[in-house]
Structure formats: structure tokens, C-alpha cells
Design a protein that fits this description.
Helices cover 70% and strands 0% of the residues. It is mainly α and 107 residues long. It folds into 2 domains: 72 residues, Orthogonal Bundle (434 Repressor (Amino-terminal Domain)), CATH 1.10.260; 34 residues.
Length: 107
């Protein structure tokens, strides 16, 4: 049996999961991967196929290059600021949608 090992790709994924308060289970569901499969990949440092890795990057709001290399021209701080901005924008969109639904009598 292989010895568990970390891969920098997964270290970055786990850090972004913590920052965004997303569980591994939710991420696995979002990218259509069995949760136990993803946990196995993380534990043994196994990289997913390119499409799945790209979907993981999209789900976390970063580039695939960042997950693989740890850099895409932005600092980690830059990524964290971008993620925070996306969260703020998403919250504003939800508020606006709620106001529209109330005004047209949907809710």
C-alpha cells in the first residue's frame, strides 16, 4: 500500500477550502467526483485529470496554473483579495435578486 503524501496542488486546494469555508465533500460534489475518491487523491498526492483539476480551480476561483505551480502572476494575497471581492459581489447579487423577487411578488 502506498504511503500517504501531500502534493503542493492539494496543499493549495486545502488552503483555499479553508479560506472559502468549503468542505472537501462540497467541492467533490461540485466537480462531480466521489468524495472518497477526492479524499484518496488528497491523502496520496494523486493529481486529478486535467478537466477535473480545471473544474476544481474554477470552483475555488483561481487558475489551474495557480493550483499546479503556486503562481500565475498574482500573489496569494492577490488571490485572497480577489476571492473576497467575489464573495462581496455574490452577496450583493443575492440581495438584488431578493429585492426583485419581492417587488414582483414572487416571495
Amino acid at each position: 500500500m502506498r504511503k500517504p503524501t501531500e502534493h503542493p496542488f492539494w496543499e493549495r486546494v486545502k488552503r483555499l477550502l479553508r479560506i472559502n469555508k468549503i468542505s472537501q465533500e462540497k467541492l467533490a460534489s461540485y466537480v462531480s467526483v466521489n468524495c472518497s475518491t477526492m479524499k484518496h487523491w488528497i491523502c496520496y498526492g494523486i493529481l486529478p485529470d486535467v478537466m477535473t483539476a480545471s473544474n476544481i480551480a474554477d470552483a475555488l476561483g483561481v487558475t489551474l496554473e495557480f493550483l499546479i505551480k503556486g503562481s500565475d502572476g498574482q500573489t496569494t494575497e492577490g488571490h485572497e483579495q480577489e476571492l473576497m471581492a467575489r464573495k462581496i459581489i455574490a452577496a450583493e447579487i443575492r440581495k438584488m435578486a431578493l429585492q426583485i423577487e419581492k417587488s414582483v411578488g414572487i416571495i
